[in-house]
Amino acid sequence: MLKIALAQADFQVGHITANHDRILKLIRQARDEQGVDLLVLPELALTGYPPEDLVLRSGFMRRTEETLADITDQVRGIDVIIGHPRRHGEQRYNSVSWLRDGQVLGTYDKWDLPNYAVFDERRYFVPGTEPLVIEVAGVRVGVLICEDTWTPEAARAAREAGAQLLVSANASPYYRRKHLDRAEVLKSRHAETGLALIYLNCVGGQDELVFDGHSLAIDATGRLSEPAPLCEEALLRVDFDPDTGAFGYRDWPAGQTEDLPVIYAVLKRGLADYVRKNKFSSVVFGLSGGIDSALTAALAADALGPDNVLAVMLPSRHTSELSLILASEQINCLGLKFHNLSIEPIYQAMTTQLAEPFAGRPENFTEENLQARARGNLIMALSNKFGHLPLATGNKSELATGYSTIYGDMCGGFSPIKDVLKTLVYELAEWRNRQGEAIPQGVIERPPSAELAPDQLDQDKLPPYVVLDEIISRYVERDEPISEIVAAGIDEATVRRVAGMVLAAEYKRRQGAPGPRITRKAFGRDRRYPITSGWRDSGGLGG
């Protein structure tokens, strides 16, 4: 039996010293406590993933090489597969090295470099061309790196080089129901090669990406494991029998796979890691009595603890008594710290100052935006004075259509529900309340409103959210043309209006805060549209 430990762990981007120490600790734990033959670490574990332009700096690469040499020298009594960037002359590779008894037995360079969605690896690396198969405890093990597992060539080459088992080191970011896609990929590679395959994924939030763990394995008979723990670090233990191709799972807790709890856990991990890794300990945001800030409050309290969450009620002349009551109920329910700061004096001062240049002009969205920006100023002032990370509370439906105020409610260092459509906001709120009340039911039941004008409702300016979110899902996330969306039964005028709003709001989104990605196409590094553009989708008939 080949005894294997898999380090489903969080390695921080750029923190080479901390990653070095963590790797050595995991080596000792796997060798001395679990007694395994082989420890597998994730893709680019030494530098964290993705290191982006850090790998273009010679000092960063030199430090990486020195640290890898130090780790190699300390490896004794166990084999270690470790991910790291590698230089060879002027070229760089995304690599793993196989370490044994102070030596590098071999190095494998990633074959398939993803250059789509959030990935940009061809900017930094060149592809490898040779398989790596090493024997350990009598088993010939072939190595893959992440995208190599999603295409057939590298796995086939490893089998042809004599591999009896494939091990894939991954930094695979989450999108909704991705564990199902990973399972299908493993089934395909098994069908093509007949080999058992272990798929190790890392954990942790990194800017807009969240690595969800959920490591997998498929044995030589095609039997899939349960996904490993979700968004949790674990030193997984699995034994491989080369005679039968079967796995024995010694320490492999099953992870959550139900849709809503997975999404909530990913959002929570993304928020907690962004706060912690950027040296904050607390957050501040405006709590309005509406659903978006209510879900943000629940996420923040769950991720950071209520003592580290400052909710600020920022009423104006248009704020209803119900909003104040519901916000107060949630503050008491979650045990949050809070302030109640009226924006009315600021708003009056701003309108007075602008009275002369605005003379003769009717009130419009300008006055509405002044209120949002007064709130943004107060949130930023509390952030500056006390060191809280400010959170923006907008959802994907608002950001898609520009139904948000730049320098107002978009103010923030992080946007926890940025990739969550409004309909999903409600689903997550209701799910969270089933685990224990965190959001007043009155917040969930009331019609959404920005409360920037008398009797204002979101649906006065936007289509019903069920319709709007379907259009956004198709137009933004699936890149469907207007003609195809209309053919699916949605009113053409509505589709055209929403598409126009999406294109017009690009400049706002470009200046917005990052937030955790949960869909296949999030705003940010995932969707790169020009701000200045003459393109208007005319239904597939040209620009």
Automatic annotation (TrEMBL):
- Which molecular-function annotations from GO does this UniProt entry contain? ATP binding; glutaminase activity; NAD+ synthase (glutamine-hydrolyzing) activity; NAD+ synthase activity
Q: In which pathway does it act?
A: Cofactor biosynthesis; NAD(+) biosynthesis; NAD(+) from deamido-NAD(+) (L-Gln route): step 1/1
- Transmembrane residue ranges: none
List the keywords (alphabetical).
Answer: ATP-binding, Ligase, NAD, Nucleotide-binding
Q: Which residues bind deamido-NAD(+)?
A: 369, 398, 508
Domain of life, per the record?
Bacteria
Q: Which InterPro entries does the entry mention?
A: C-N_Hydrolase, C-N_Hydrolase_sf, Gln-dep_NAD_synthase, NAD/GMP_synthase, NAD_synthase, Rossmann-like_a/b/a_fold
Any one Gene Ontology BP term: NAD+ biosynthetic process
Name the residues that bind ATP. 286-293, 393
The answer to whether keyword Ligase applies is yes
Q: Where is the CN hydrolase domain?
A: 2-242
Q: Which reaction does it catalyse?
A: deamido-NAD(+) + L-glutamine + ATP + H2O = L-glutamate + AMP + diphosphate + NAD(+) + H(+)
Q: What is its EC number?
A: 6.3.5.1
Q: Which residues bind L-glutamine?
A: 116, 172, 178
Which GO CC terms are listed, alphabetically? cytoplasm
Q: Which HAMAP family match?
A: NadE_glutamine_dep (MF_02090)
Q: Which family does it belong to?
A: In the C-terminal section; belongs to the NAD synthetase family. Belongs to the NAD synthetase family.
PANTHER family documented for this protein: GLUTAMINE-DEPENDENT NAD(+) SYNTHETASE (PTHR23090:SF9), NH 3 /GLUTAMINE-DEPENDENT NAD + SYNTHETASE (PTHR23090)
User: In UniProt terms, what function does this protein have?
Assistant: Catalyzes the ATP-dependent amidation of deamido-NAD to form NAD. Uses L-glutamine as a nitrogen source.
The protein's name in its UniProt record: Glutamine-dependent NAD(+) synthetase
Q: Give the gene that encodes this protein.
A: nadE
